[in-house]
Write a structure and sequence with these properties.
single chain; mainly beta; 3-stranded antiparallel beta sheet
């Protein structure tokens, strides 16, 4: 399920910080406060699957295309880890193996 964000035209707090992504001519903006509460965020931007994560400092944000070798990955935060570790849901469901793509387990460090 994709996250629910404010629609165009809905008000944000004055001077709210947003993070913008532009892919394939489509643009989306994410309120930083929402990203800080819900990281990681899985979304589609311009038809491209992305995962958006907030760093341990709660200020830096990174976005990654979540496709490897043409296969769409679905990432989840591994509970209780610092720095943040992202686990591919398919790998987590089947256990790790040598066949798992190298990007199936990402660490986000500042």
């Amino acid at each position: 399920m994709l996250p629910q964000f404010k629609k165009v035209g809905q008000n944000l707090e004055p001077r709210a910080q947003v993070v913008g992504i532009n892919l394939n001519g489509a643009t989306k903006a994410y309120p930083l406060a929402t990203l800080q509460k819900q990281s990681p965020i899985v979304d589609l931007v311009g038809g491209v699957p992305v995962v958006i994560v907030v760093g341990d400092d709660h200020r830096s944000v990174r976005a990654f295309e979540s496709t490897v070798d043409g296969r769409r990955l679905e990432f989840f935060a591994k509970p209780g880890t610092a720095p943040l570790q992202l686990i591919d849901g398919q790998v987590a469901a089947h256990g790790t193996s040598a066949a798992a793509p190298s990007l199936a387990h990402w660490q986000v460090a500042n």
